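Lecture 7, part 2: worked example. A protein chain together with FE3-S4 cluster.
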Amino acid sequence: TYIIAEPCVDVMDKACVEECPVDCIYEGGRSLYIQPDECVDCGACEPVCPVEAIFYEDDVPDEWDPYLSANADFFDELGSPGGASKVGKTDFDPPFIKSLPPMNE
Ligand code: F3S
Ligand code: F3S
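Predicted complex, written out as structure tokens:
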């Protein structure tokens, strides 16, 4: 799977959402998250993110390792809805992301 890391927090550009052929990029309160079971590793999202927040799971910079589990944890309650557009915006974020200081200043 691909994952979304810290540069997305409070930026949420959403260019990636338009590119994903399987609609597996879901919106939380402060970031977007890729559903790891739904992502087909097409990689289309990665080059379009203006802040370079998207990485293949094996290529995540060490400092952003926690985002691997954060992307998965986001779906603990949501599961695998099979499409982000029908879920829409949620106000949920994994705890450590929720507690980050404002990132867009
Ligand atoms: Fe975030 Fe980049 Fe997508 S800022 S919403 S990962 S285009
Ligand atoms: Fe979609 Fe990106 Fe995966 S475009 S299928 S989330 S690699």
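Residues 4, 8, 11-16, 32, 49, 51, 53-54 surround FE3-S4 cluster (ligand 1) (CB under 6 Å). Strands lie at 2-4, 25-27, 32-34, 54-56. Keep this in mind for problem set question 3.
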